[in-house]
Amino acid sequence: MKFMLMIIDDEKAEAALAPGEIEKIVAKHNEFGRQLRATGKYIDSRRLRFTNEATTIRQTAGGTTYVDGPFAESKEVLGGYYLIEANSKPEAIEWAKKLPYLEVGGVEVRPCRTGAQGHVPIRATNQYMTLFIVDSTKRMERDAVFNAIDRHYELSLELAAAGKFVSSRALEPPSAASTIRWKNGAHIVSDGPFAETREFIGGFFVIACDTKDEALKWAEQLSAANEACEVRPVWLPS
Fold first, then answer.
1. Distance between CA atoms of 231 and 213, rounded to whole angstroms?
2. Is the CB of residue 165 less than 8 Å from the CB of residue 130?
3. Among 32, 52, 53, 62, which has the minimal tally of Cβ within 10 Å of its Cβ?
4. How far apart are CA 33 and CA 49, in angstroms?
5. Structural domains in the chain, sorted by start
6. Which residue, 75, 63, 86, is CA-closest to 14?
């Protein structure tokens, strides 16, 4: 089974850290990645840039709207993720407990559905994560679900043909999630997502584009089938 370990950050707390502290955290993530690879559990990981670089796309009666910032206004935001293989959710939770930087945030562990990893040469200089947002109060009819799956599959093929596709994944609903926090020297595991909100992340694409405007154009095709789509740059090694 595939699980997404979503790293939850307090951006103000992270920005206040000294450069040396950031380097220590990055080193711990590098070690975590080596452990995953050594056991064959690693699939993918990305660190996201801050939410002030995000743009959220929504389809309204008046047309397409673009709003600077993330889809949810919250102190805690998605800062990055690991996509791993695990035999069970308890195993995925045990891996999540090994992640650093839990003192000012947490980790949401959520099972994945369908998705793919790109295996074509990337022909762009930047990567962007496009998070498609779902409204938990709206129930999709069966035909609409399959139409959305087809649309995502066709978009994957189009992105791959253009050398833009990196990876994609659909996620189980928040009711399938568990959130891990570090408090008083111990891990606290609770059922449910890190944020209680009507709108939640239903899945993602990571795409390669030369500019954010280009990424937004691709993301418009995702937002048409969902409540919204947040586009945020990925933090690439310098």
1. 10
2. no
3. 62
4. 19
5. 2-233 (3.30.70.1060)
6. 75
Q: What is the rounded CA–CA span in Å between residue 60 and residue 29?
A: 40
Burial status of residue 16 (CB atoms within 10 A of its CB: 0-12, 13-18, 19 or more): exposed
Backbone φ and ψ of 173, nearest 5°: -65, 165
237: its two tokens: 């090694």
Angle CA 166–171–175, to nearest 5? 160
The pTM (predicted TM-score) of the whole model is 0.89
CA distance 148 to 218: 15
Q: What is the pLDDT of residues 137-182, one digit of tens each?
A: 777 677 777 777 888 889 899 999 999 999 999 999 999 999 999 8
Are residues 167 and 115 in contact, defined by beta-carbon separation less than 8 angstroms? yes
Q: Are 118 and 160 in contact (CB under 8 A)?
A: yes
Q: How do residues 104-117 score in pLDDT, each as one tens digit?
A: 689 999 999 888 89
Q: How many CB atoms lie within 10 A of CB 128?
A: 28
What number of CA atoms fall less than 13 Å from residue 124's CA on the CB side?
22
Half-sphere exposure of 156 (CA within 13 A, CB side): 19
Cα gap 48→214, rounded to integer Å:
18
C-beta of residue 3 within 8 angstroms of C-beta of residue 86:
yes
Tally the residues of the chain.
238
As given in the structure block, the two tokens for residue 104 are 């000012």
